[in-house]
Design a protein that fits this description.
By secondary structure, the protein is mostly helical. Helix content is about 50%, strand content about 0%. The longest helix is centred in the C-terminal third of the chain and has 16 residues. The N and C termini lie far apart (about 35 Å).
Length: about 90
Amino acid sequence: MTILTHEYAERASPQNFTPNETIMGSGFKRFRTVEICKLYDVSRATLFRWEREGLITEPPRDWRNWRTYTGRNIKEIQQLIKTRNAGR
């Protein structure tokens, strides 16, 4: 299993995507739930709650019905974390 590093996440960050490429998923890296949780230090429950509450766009799913987070999702997650940290 490949561990997602912060360095890789920087290269794969939403700033490197154009909106159409991110939404259409034209071959860019998609991230699994466990990778997002480790990278941003959030629990699965928190991530799924944000999705349920509409704070992040529902991520597409793969053939196993597992969530695969796109650059767009990552940008939304980063914004939520920034907002949450600004309130502290």
